[in-house]
């Protein structure tokens, strides 16, 4: 039995715990930490998973998953380092933080895998990218892939690409929510009730995403299939291009990448 400790039971930590349970893990294989006692008690009661302190969780775990905010990592690593058992696999879900940071703070030779998940983990549809640190083996990468497959899809990337992944898929759901919000507002402007506009746009987004996943066609071809000559869609596309929406999205993703790099530098 592989015991897993999730350090930090925020939204991502809770989603991972729930996904592992749904994927067939026993509650006896899982523990978690949470600095707020009320939250720890509520989550423990709801999921049936024991809440411990960092040292207690590390002492019992074969895999330690760090799901804390990047700015909170220093005190957590200070607690974790003396309690970590030799050979324990450390998995970081902390945005922007390189594996070298963990390898420098934890006992020599500690295997570390860096992961960039995203919030659709809450509904079992995460996109997670994983990268091996200096001491992580291919078998350990495969273990992390299997662990994360319970809450979505997984891809391996070189660690040098993780800041780009953070900007693209890590922050990506927020871009879609932003666009959906704007489209719902447009529906209201055009005279639709908010509930009707929301239903129209959310289902359209869901259907479009499914077409993208299941079709072998490039997104350009899927868009062109909706774009009739002199029709309504091309009129809308012209306005999107005129207002620089494509350029704004690219610039926004570049800014997110730069912020990810800054977070890593600040932690070091």
TrEMBL record:
Enzyme class, spelled out: oxidoreductase
Protein's name in the database: Pyrroline-5-carboxylate reductase
UniProt catalytic activity: L-proline + NADP(+) = (S)-1-pyrroline-5-carboxylate + NADPH + 2 H(+); L-proline + NAD(+) = (S)-1-pyrroline-5-carboxylate + NADH + 2 H(+)
Compartments in which it is found: Cytoplasm
Residues engaged in binding NADP(+): 67-70
Oxidoreductase in keyword set: yes
SUPFAM superfamilies: 6-phosphogluconate dehydrogenase C-terminal domain-like, NAD(P)-binding Rossmann-fold domains
E.C. number(s) listed in UniProt: 1.5.1.2
One Gene Ontology biological process: L-proline biosynthetic process
Taxonomic superkingdom: Bacteria
Function: Catalyzes the reduction of 1-pyrroline-5-carboxylate (PCA) to L-proline.
GO terms, molecular function: pyrroline-5-carboxylate reductase activity
């Amino acid at each position: 039995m592989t015991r897993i400790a999730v350090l930090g039971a925020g939204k991502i930590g809770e989603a991972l715990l729930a996904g592992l349970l749904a994927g067939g893990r026993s509650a006896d294989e899982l523990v978690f930490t949470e600095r707020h006692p009320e939250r720890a008690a509520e989550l423990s009661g709801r999921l049936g998973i024991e809440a411990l302190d960092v040292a207690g969780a590390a002492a019992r775990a074969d895999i330690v998953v760090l799901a804390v905010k990047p700015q909170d990592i220093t005190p957590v690593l200070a607690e974790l380092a003396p309690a970590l058992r030799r050979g324990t696999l450390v998995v970081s879900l902390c945005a922007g933080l390189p594996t070298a940071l963990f390898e420098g703070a934890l006992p020599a030779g500690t295997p570390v895998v860096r992961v960039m998940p995203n919030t659709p983990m809450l509904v079992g549809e995460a996109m997670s990218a994983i990268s091996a640190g200096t001491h992580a083996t291919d078998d350990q990468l495969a273990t992390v892939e299997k662990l994360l497959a319970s809450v979505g899809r997984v891809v391996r990337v070189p660690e040098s690409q993780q800041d780009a992944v953070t900007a693209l898929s890590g922050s990506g759901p927020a871009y879609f929510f932003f666009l959906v919000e704007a489209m719902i507002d447009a529906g209201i402007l055009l005279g639709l009730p908010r509930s009707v506009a929301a239903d129209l746009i959310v289902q359209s987004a869901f259907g479009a995403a499914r077409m993208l996943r299941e079709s072998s066609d490039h997104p350009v071809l899927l868009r062109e299939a909706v774009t009739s000559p002199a029709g309504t869609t091309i009129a809308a596309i012209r306005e999107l291009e005129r207002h620089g929406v494509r350029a704004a999205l690219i610039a926004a993703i570049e800014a997110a990448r730069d912020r990810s790099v800054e977070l890593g530098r600040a932690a070091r």
